[in-house]
Design goal:
Order of helices and strands: EEHEEEEEEHEEHEHEH
Structural class: alpha/beta
Number of strands: 12
Number of domains: 2
Number of helices: 5
Helix content: 25-40%
Distance between the termini: 36 Å
CATH topology of the largest domain: Transcription Regulator spoIIAA
């Protein structure tokens, strides 16, 4: 099923907040359709609310979520950038991380300021291949950017294991588990 960029605006409220203030997030999701984009945005908003307001519980107001127009198709791995602001961006990469003389992971990760991030969750389900330069970029930035990988296929997982990266990086079966680990690590 093809995936697309779909922006979602989703509000949340802190529980037991006397001011009853609403917080709004814009989430640039990757999903197959608007309904799925809203579900992804809800999961990301819940995690970001916990990161922004440690020790507080919140309620995501899913009934007020609005999905925007479907954008370009995404057919490779992608990462959600969990920053300190009210916007969750994504970074999209090619299916094969082996571009001639280019290092798309390293170039993207070099431009991120860890002081402005809680971390990244990287969906590897559509990653077909990664060369040594891509592996080196992940290893070099994994701690600095608090990268959590999820849905990595067994053939690639074996590559990560062979080069010893499974001991250095965080691997998860789902985005929910990656987000939970990111939240727990930031405490």
């Amino acid at each position: 099923m093809p995936l697309y960029e779909i922006p979602v605006v989703i509000p949340y409220r802190l529980d037991r907040d006397p001011s009853a203030a609403l917080y709004g997030l814009q989430v640039n999701t990757i999903a197959s359709k608007a309904v799925a984009a809203i579900a992804v945005a809800q999961m990301l908003a819940q995690a970001l609310a916990r990161l922004h307001h440690p020790g507080r519980t919140s309620t995501v107001l899913i009934e007020r979520a609005k999905a925007g127009a479907t954008g370009r198709m995404i057919d490779g791995p992608y990462a959600y950038v969990m920053g300190h602001g009210n916007h969750i961006h994504h970074l999209a990469f090619p299916r094969r991380i082996d571009h001639h003389g280019r290092n798309p992971l390293g170039e993207a990760f070099d431009g991120l300021d860890p002081a402005k991030l809680h971390g990244l969750v990287l969906d590897c389900a559509n990653m077909q291949y990664i060369n040594s330069t891509g592996l080196a970029a992940l290893a070099a930035h994994s701690d600095r950017l608090r990268i959590h990988l999820f849905r990595i296929g067994e053939p690639l997982r074996k590559v990560f294991d062979l080069v010893g990266l499974t001991h250095l990086m965080q691997f998860h079966d789902s985005m929910q588990l990656a987000l939970e680990a990111l939240v727990a690590r930031s405490r």
